[in-house]
TrEMBL record:
The lineage of its organism: Eukaryota, Metazoa, Chordata, Craniata, Vertebrata. It comes from Neogobius melanostomus. It is a multi-pass membrane protein. PANTHER family: SOLUTE CARRIER FAMILY 22 MEMBER. This is Major facilitator superfamily (MFS) profile domain-containing protein. It is found in: Membrane.
Amino acid sequence: MKDFDQAIAFLGEWGLFQKIMFFSLCLSMISNSFGLGIVFVYDTPKHQCFIPQSNLTQEWLEAVVPVSVVNRVEERSRCSRYRLDVVMNLSAQGFAPGDVNLTELLQEPCVDGWSYSKDIYQSTIVTEFDLVCHDEWKQPFTASVLYAGITCGSLLTGELSDKYGRKPILFATMAVQTIFTLIQVFANSWILFTILLFFNGLGQMSNYVAALVLGAEILIGHARVVYSSAAVNSSFALGYMMLPLLGYCLRDWRSLLLGMALPGLLYIPMWWLIPESPRWLLYQGKVQEAEAIFRKAARWNKVQAPQYIFDQYMVPEKEKAQEKKNYSTLDLFKISKLRVTTLTLFLIWFNMFISYYALSLNTSQLHTNPFLSCFIFALVEIPAYVCSWLALRYLPRRTSIITTLCLGSVPLFLLELVPHDLSTVTLIMEMLAKFFFACGTSLLFTYTSELYPTPLRTTATGTCSMVSRIGSCFAPFLLKLSVFLKYLPHITMASMALLAASATLFIPESFGLPLPETFEQMATRKRIQCLCDRNKEPNRTLVPAEEPL
């Protein structure tokens, strides 16, 4: 009995069909990174209390806002000013700021609102809805709402994809992301914006998981390795690098959202180009539909398809339909080995992604030019994903994950030793940490999809992605720990990374093994791997397999 990859080997690995699927699915992932555009949408420009039109002299206008020292730098107060009536009275009596002791003057909050610098942005939601001072907590909360939506979307779409198919969920989530981003442009309050942002999050990254699994189940051999590692992540990084360009050209937050939403309309023609997952169709007993996809692919690749492509699946469809079962997230915990693997992966995903997103959200604070800083952090992901592809090609999965986590934690621990005035060194250290964590996130998606059988593959990947988004929900608040100690967030991230590295030792290896189709194949994976280590040609004699994933 041939396995799936052997059954479709007649197509070859890199024909016209595979090329179209490869690049179409990669193109669908570019907009996934637009969720990181929140760093521009809710960034906080320099601001101070607004001083209404008055008869104050220029000297008093400059002195009415108190000056304090923050991190050895003098800054004007952002949330208070000297009482305006007192200042106006002193000015009317002919006193100059140098004639009085300003520190003894009473202060008041910004009762007339704030004036914001427009050196970088024309507007953000912070300037639009005054999310500063007593409402400053709304800034990290806004980002957390987005990631809460992504969390819920990852959970729901994983199960829906396994139940209704990869293709409809892929396009449904892309539609949700595009539609709600467009509606956000017209939000006239912070509450409405936040509610729409949550629904926007339902589509963010969910289509990434659906497209990742769909491509992994269509492609085989080296094409699948390149797609699942370097290609999908490089597509994400390409969209990430487009963000600072959009932000630089569109300095108003509404225009920026519009610029991020419109590319979603380009995905509509792909509905007629991208097929359903043949593996999923076979599991549903729809053999003829699965074969039809590859007969069409054979015509595109100009090869001859055999009479029966999936002969081992040639059973009555009614009988197959009776045997199939709809699995849910709960099935990840029913079997002992599944439960241990799943809980361990939860810990690894949570710790990896909280570090990744905390570093990503901190980009606007690392350089006076947030667009340049964001571009550099996006650019560093390209070599990271190339390294992840090489690791997937030649190295065991567990070794690769542990290495990225440990190396990513080192520069975060060392940041405390960097002098405050060496901002360039700080930027380089955070870039190094981001490099290793980006590499690790790429490895995790592929590793997780290799561990689980077809009935639970998307559910498992989606659930793990959901757990990672819970971590990303905490990332904005993790950065706020800097008020207690400047690098406390980085020390926390590094410690969590080392904990995740230790946990990686408790999950099975998948390097050099085929994707499991059933629970039985997954259960015997460890035993087969041990036998493979003693055999000169393990993938050819013990299990039907392909090139290392």
